[in-house]
Amino acid sequence: MDSTIQVSEPKNQWLVRFQNFWRTFSKNNIGLVGLAMLTVIVIMAIFAPWIAPYDSSSSADFQVGDIYNPPSASHWFGTDDAGQDVFSNFIFGARISLIVGFFAALSPLSSVVCWDLWQAFLAGAGKTS
């Protein structure tokens, strides 16, 4: 008589794995600082139209005296060569940076998935049942 004991995994296995990951990750101070920075940038990118004090694409009220102004109460990071607020451009630029980073990470991932599917197909094609 062959008796096998089946060990059932906990129903919340993903929760246990996440807790183990977080326990290890939270000990890394540099990782926590990076996570905080990424969180702030993502929140800024999502709420950019409400956070930015000026429209980043508008130079309608441009005056020659607005070029290269130093940081002040009205322009926290100063102004650029077009007289636009640098802080607003920084906030709206976070959106573009996150989109580029996402697709830069996604494109190699999709090519690897296609390659692995092709290799699995070729490995399965050699087998006859």
Give the helices and strands as they follow along the chain: HHHH
**Spatial gap, N to C terminus:** 31 Å
Helix content: 55-70%
Radius of gyration: 26 Å
Total beta-strand segments: 0
Instruction: Give me the secondary-structure category.
Output: mainly alpha
Low-confidence region ranges: none
Descriptors:
129 residues; elongated; mainly alpha; single chain; 58% helix
Describe this structure in words.
With 129 residues, the chain is mainly α. Helix content is 58%, strand content 0%. It contains four helices and no strands. Helix 2 (29-46) packs across helix 4. The model has no long low-confidence stretch (mean pLDDT 84).
Write the layout of secondary structure elements.
Blueprint (H helix, E strand, L loop, with lengths): L12 H13 L3 H18 L1 H4 L34 H40 L4
Helix pairs in contact: 2-4
Summed up, what is this model?
With 129 residues, the protein is mainly α.
